[in-house]
Amino acid sequence: MRVLGVDPGLTRCGVGVVEGVAGRPLTMLGVGVVRTPADAELGNRLVAIEQGIEEWLDTHRPEVVAVERVFSQHNVSTVMGTAQASAVAMLCAARRGIPVALHTPSEVKAAVTGSGRADKAQVGAMVTRLLRLAAPPKPADAADALALAICHIWRAPAQNRLQQAVAQHAVSKGRTR
Q1: 132: exposed, middle or buried (C-beta count within 10 Å: 0-12, 13-18, 19+)?
Q2: Which of 89, 116, 121, 146 is a plausible cystine mate for 110, CB 3.0–4.6 Å?
Q3: Cβ(82)–Cβ(10) under 8 Å?
Q4: Annotated catalytic residue within 19, 41, 55, 68
Q5: For the ranges 57-61, 95-99, 152-156, which has the lowest average pLDDT?
Q6: By the 8 A CB rule, do 50 and 92 touch?
Q7: Residue 92 CA to its chain's centroid (Å)
Q8: Of these residues, 39, 58, 107, 141, which one is catalytic?
Q9: Cα dihedral angle (44, 63, 103, 75), rounded to 10 degrees?
Q10: Is 68 a catalytic residue?
């Protein structure tokens, strides 16, 4: 499975592509950051993020796009910018028919480090180790994007089994009535 992880942000939108399957060594195919100037108009920043994500989709052809689920923070303007960048990533994927998976920060941290409360340094260290990199990707947004992709690769099989079980249960319940 090839997954594009997106750590959404207006100034720095982390992107990273990981390939592999759960239980096997994973391979990083690319990592980077789509940057926009903080003083640029919002519409222009969103277009720049779209263009950057489109380039990553063209180059790496992922099967799934994993995006960090936006959660409420104290700074509303930060949340809004993150949500807007997240929507751009989802739109780019949907336009191409690529499935989108949303993962919360605590799900990603727990999947990669074993603790949903891990800090950015711990996430970066584990991403470095899991992908057998020489050094942690910089900035942290890039490492977070790789962590999202890793999280999805590891969690997708269990999520698929759960969805199938729920669907089978619904079908069998409908037949017995």
Answers
A1: exposed
A2: 116
A3: yes
A4: 68
A5: 152-156
A6: yes
A7: 13
A8: 141
A9: -10
A10: yes
CB 107 within 8 A of CB 72: no
- At residue 77, φ and ψ (nearest 5 deg) are -65, -35
Q: Is 141 a catalytic site residue?
A: yes
Residue 43 tokens, joined: 């519409």
β-pairing verdict for 100-103 and 64-68: parallel
Tokens 């789509």, located at residue? 34
Question: Which is nearest to 4 in space by CA: 28, 25, 22, 21?
Answer: 28
Give the tens place of pLDDT for each residue, 158-177. 766 666 777 777 788 876 55
Q: Give CA separation, 103 vs 46, 145, 153, in Å.
A: 22, 11, 12
**What's the token pair of residue 158?**
């269990």
Geometric angle at alpha carbon 18, from 99 and 81, rounded to 5°: 60
When pLDDT is cut at 50, 70 and 90, the band that residue 142 belongs to is very high
Q: How far, in Å, CA of 130 to CA of 27, rounded? A: 9
CA atoms within 13 A of residue 38's CA, in its CB half-sphere:
3
